[in-house]
Amino acid sequence: MLNNITKSILIIIQGLCFAIAGGTLIFMLFYQLDTLTMRLWDESRNAANALEMYYNHNYIVKHYLGKPDMWELKPPFLVWTQQISLHLFGINEFAIRLPSVLAIVALAVALFGVAKKHSQYVFIGFLVVLNLALNPGIFGAHIARFGDHDALLCLFSFGSIYAFYRWSLKPDSLKWSAWFWVFLAFAWLTKSIVALFFGPAWIIYLLLSKKLFIFIKNRTFWIGFAGFLIIPALYYLWHEILTPGYLNEVWNHELFNRYAGNRPEYHTDHSQFFIYFQSIWGRLGNWYFLLPLCIVLSFRKTANAHFMRYLLLCSVCTLLVISYGPKNFWYDAVVLVLLILLNVLALSEIFSLLKNRIYQWIFVVVVLIITLAFNLKNYSTIKKSNVFDVNIEQDDTMYKLAYLLRDETFYKENDSINLLYNDMEAPLRFYIIKLQKEQKKVIREWMHPKPKDLTLSTYYTNDTAIVAMAKSIGYTAKDIDYQCYKLKKEIK
């Protein structure tokens, strides 16, 4: 009788945990997902690429301003998913960001499965999902709620990291070998060479575990490696045939030259080498205090010590790798995922050490209270990062103009618009194409003003030759709603 009651209580508790963790994740992902306009850099460029692909049906060569895009050189897997989403949900921000959202959902499911398997506790699985859902780094700019590459990269990179670990335990395993190379290939098709940033960690891990030569002599390794090379190579060669010069641009602007800072536009400030190690504490949220405990527990003789050491190795090596190259705060996204998993595994080890059932329940209650307190603070941090709400006063003029172009009342009142902007301001490009194709609006870009047309300019163009040219033909800059620049005919 008591056993049945206990089982019923456990089922109810698990149901509540599922509702809390799953509900929090869904809320954090979907709440006002389409509120913000497209953001610089990669999201808006990807959106413009996807929208041009939507109309021109060229699924190999990404286009921008109607021409092959030789600036955004990454392979097109993300853009493929976005243009499919555009067909399903229409031309809007939700469709552009949905692939990233679904990638985080899939990542949460994967983390739940891995945490449950290695801890043997469903509770730990729910905890890792909850901590993922309220992580300030993952839910800040450029990752979970945006159309950048990094959400998909997190999914595929975590898949390759875990598959490699399972494969290393059984080097003859065809299953985990296949999964590793598949995840790695998709990671490359998502964000190019970044897929290999974990390579040094894998080599060191194999050396430490004395399995490097076992892998090298394994036929499965070479078959998978050949397959991995063929998939990206076919794409690059096909692209080069269609747009000669593409491979040269990839080499100079996407691969090693960019990483090493060998070109002026990608200069790396090595005095900031440890910036990722310094920022990881804040981006991990309030759980950073568990990291020293993770290090200690990974060197104890526990069930998960080996796996925890592997996660630590991957995290530290990857931070060192990205520290050498260009600095963008969201490059640590995959490391955050590994550290979130590492933290909950440390909690599961503590739980296992408590043999008394009463102590275990007390521990669970304490962890839940701390989790609630920490994650409420994390939510406050995420909310302040302006990923949910529009803040017109703080947004750049370019974004204000994007809101204006998106405003139905505005574009219905203006059939013809002159738009003066920098061609790197990709957030505007998305709305320009949408207005031209869906609303059949006449938008004359750059310097083709007509006297009766409304003429708008952005911040980047306000102090440049473009505005000087506008003034030379009788237009002057005036401040308007959304603080864009309205160029009106001067009254003399």
Distance between the terminal alpha carbons, to the nearest Å?
94 Å
Across the major sheet, the strand order is 4-3-5-7-6
For the report, how would you describe the main beta sheet?
Answer: 5 strands, mixed
Kindly provide the radius of gyration, computed on alpha-carbon positions and rounded to a whole number of angstroms: 25 Å
The outline comes out as: globular
Instruction: Count every beta strand, where a strand is a DSSP E run of 2 or more residues.
Output: 7
Number of helices: 22
Low-confidence stretches: 459-463, 476-492
- Which oligomeric state applies? single chain
Strand residue percentage: 5-15%
What is the ordering of alpha helices and beta strands?
A: HHEEHHHHHHHHHHHHHHHHHEHEEHHEE
Q: Averaging pLDDT over every residue, what do you get?
A: 81
DSSP helix fraction? 55-70%
Given helix and strand content, the structural type is mainly alpha
What's the domain count? Answer: 2
Mind explaining what this structure looks like?
There is one protein chain. The chain has two domains: 16-384, no CATH class; 397-489. The strands form two sheets. The chain has a five-stranded mixed sheet, sandwiched between helices. Strands 1-2 form a two-stranded antiparallel ribbon. It has 22 helices and seven strands. 40% of the residues are buried. The chain has helices at residues 2-30, 42-56, 77-89, 93-119, 122-133, 150-169, 174-191, 199-208, 212-216, 219-242, 246-253, 256-260, 275-283, 291-298, 305-324, 333-353, 357-384, 397-406, 408-413, 426-437, 459-462, 465-472; strands spanning 63-64, 67-68, 416-420, 442-445, 454-457, 475-479, 485-489. The protein has 492 residues and is mainly α. A hairpin with a 5-residue loop joins strand 6 and strand 7. The model is unreliable at 459-463 and 476-492 (pLDDT under 50).
